[in-house]
Each structure stands twice: as structure tokens, then as C-alpha cells.
Amino acid sequence: MRLGIALSLLACISVPPRALAQVPDVAPDITEVVSGGWWESGESRGEYRLVIQRNGWEHLWSVHSLQWIESPNERGSPIVRASVPLTKVDSPYWISSPTLTFRDGSPVFVLRQQNNSFLEAKRVVEVYPDSIGQYRFTVVSESVLPDE
Fold first, then answer.
1. Which range in 52-61, 93-102, 120-129, 138-147 is most confidently predicted, on average pLDDT?
2. What beta strand segments (E) does the chain contain?
3. Order of strands, sheet of 135-143, starting from the edge strand that comes earlier in the sequence
4. What is the pLDDT of residues 98-119, one digit of tens each?
5. CA distances in angstroms from 62 to 19, 74, 112, listed in the order given
6. Do residues 84 and 65 lie in contact, with contact meaning Cβ atoms separated by under 8 Å?
7. What is the average pLDDT across 123-143?
8. Predicted confidence (pLDDT) at residue 93 exceeds the cutoff of 90
9. Residue 107 falls within a domain, yes or no?
10. Does 22 map to a domain?
11. Is 7 within a domain?
């Protein structure tokens, strides 16, 4: 009787192999992805995506990419229309919590960053997607430990 109940419960919670095969492959160094907003250029349209990769072992740092994901006009899969490294935003900081917000209807990615040595140095950066492959950014606040 107990074996029958256990097998019934196991059958209810097991996942068929076919369902497991449908899980997308994500590189292990991708730690954060935030998508949203909407862009249009001629006949093309889609959404923005911020991708954050974590590098390093003892001392961590992040590499940021802003992507323009084009929605298909017909059946099919979305494509990456452009992918731009945010080299102006990359620094010896690492990302603690990226979010997406909107100001006057325009998307703004907010990056709350913290020093990779877990010190109290922090900053907030706002990234504004522009035309395809272009962006602007502003350092909103920065707090740095005083020299000792």
C-alpha cells in the first residue's frame, strides 16, 4: 500500500524528459537578464534586453550588454538586431540589482552597483537605450570610502 502511494506521488511530480529538453541553454556566466521597453525602426520593432555576465573568481566584475531584440513579422523566433557592450558603464564594480523603469514612456535600466571587494563603495547608473546600437547613461549617485 505504502509503495503504491509513493509511486503515485512520484508520478505526479516527475517531469517528462521532453519537457526538460525545452529549457533554453543559458551560459553559466550570465547572472542577470532584464527585458522590456519597445523600439521601432522602419518596419522593424522589438524590445530591449540588458544582459549581465559575471567574470572573475576571487575578485568579481561584470560585463554589460544592451541588446535590441527584433520581433518576427511572421511566425518565427526573435533575433538579436544589435548587441552593444556598455564599456562606458563597465568598471571595477559589480551589479547588485538591475531593474527596468519608465520615465515619460521611455525605458530606463537602473543599475545599482557595489564594489567587487564588498566594501561600502556603491553607485547607481541609469542607462537610456537610444536608436539601434546607441545608448546614453548617467551616474546618478556614487559613494566612495574615504582614503585611509
1. 120-129
2. 30-41, 44-55, 61-70, 79-85, 93-103, 106-115, 122-129, 135-143
3. 93-103, 106-115, 122-129, 135-143
4. 899 999 999 999 988 877 665 5
5. 32, 36, 12
6. yes
7. 91
8. no
9. yes
10. yes
11. yes
Phi-psi category of residue 105: left, alpha or beta, with phi > 0 → left and psi -120 to 50 → alpha: left
- By the 10 Å C-beta count (0-12 exposed, 13-18 middle, 19+ buried), 68 is classed as buried
Number of domains in the chain: 1
Q: What is the structure's pLDDT at 18?
A: 61
Assign 9 a pLDDT band (cuts: 50, 70, 90).
very low
Secondary structure (3-state) at 49: strand
**Cα angle 25-28-34, degrees, rounded to a multiple of 5:** 75
Q: Is residue 148 part of a domain?
A: no
Residue length of the chain: 148
Task: State the residue range of the domain holding 60.
Answer: 2-143
